[in-house]
Amino acid sequence: MSFTHFVATFWQDIAGWLVLAWVLATVGTLLAVMHLKREPMSAIAWSLTVLLMPFFGAFLFLVFGNQHIRRRVFEKRQRSRAYKTFTGRADGASARVPERWDVLARLGTHADGFPVTSGNAVRIYSEGAEAFDEMIAAVERAEHHVHAQFFICRPDDAGRRFIDALRGCARRGVEVRFLLDSVGSYNRPSRLLRVLTREGGRVAAFLPIINPLRVNLRNHRKILVVDGRIGFTGGLNIGDEYLGKHPSFGYWRDTHFRIEGGAVPGLQHTFLEDWYFTTNEALKGGAYFPPHPHEPAPGTALAQVVASGPDADFKSIRETYVAAILRARERVWIASPYFVPDAGLSDALVLAARSGVDVRFLGLFRPDKWLPFLAARYFWTDMLAAGVKVYQYTRGMMHSKFVLVDGEWASVGSANTDNRSLHLNFELNCQFFDPALTRELEEAYLRDLEWSVRIDPEVYASRPLIGRLAENACRLFSPVL
Asked: Above pLDDT 90, what percent of the chain?
């Protein structure tokens, strides 16, 4: 081959690759704009990613950016409506809340949400080991059914202990249904789950990974309902690390809670809708929603279950977060391992801080995931400039997820303050209109701050250029973090 022919062939190949890159960039940009037309900042971020990295960026958009899996999301929405019709769900009137917080109660009931219920008994757990022991004890006392739903179930000692408790129920004739997310629990204890199935339990995986490019919409909820009377939810999954046994993180700080009373049917309905969508088994009846006509109320707390997901245009948890922050007059205290807010949530926090509200954010010191951690540091810049106090938890892993406002309102559950939780994942929180519970959470928060370091805005502003470049690069992925 002559040198001239080699050069001509080389430039033909280059031209071919450039044309392909241009086609991918054009198609990817059009898809980003079309699929994310309701989220302009996400569309801009993905368009830039595809344009600057035509091949890799297009691949990333197919995996993560194409968030609306239209057929599956439409099916989930239709199944949820069908299940509500089948069960004839009748929530009754919403309990009265203080007038100042009425808008949050109404936002929580929007789009088939659950009402505020009174007379709830709530026990808050600040450590995973105690919550896990209480869940095991409740399962072992079950008489009719146990419904469990977790994002993660590990094949370790904690996973074996939990599944053994479920097996014990199944052997006693108790109905057992265990729903896992197929991505979060990709390495689940399959052998034990097969044994549980053989002994009469039911196990299902939410949105199984049929197409490896469709992994974006995940069920991040953590729900345990026993006999329709006792519920557990919060941030805890099933695994040794949640009990403080992780070799790297050691101590694991989480927030989980046990609830009895009128809010439990909200947990039950949420689980059963997800179960129906996954297995096509529709359940209803008094055994799953037992009445309490003659029993005294187990507690005094006003509580409201708030579920959200990509199958609904109205993002209930995100809207209650933003509305609560904007109504704050004294303080907004947030704990979350991941902080990648959208524009609305970011603006609400900045506005609150500039208005003189004591806004604090408590996050990670040692990250378990570097991409969202670095992206969060980009957003810290605006927060610090507005007067938000940013803390990093040094004792171990900070996995709690809650927002506290003015010592009167709290939202606790599975949702982080990031785009993934507030827009892409199926999540579940419970908002409490209860000063006593909120004060309990605030006291735990103040204890957490004793194990934390506060970021100095001036020192942070002088961080190395290489760090800033990494933060800017990672924040391009903020729509899916």
From this structure: 60
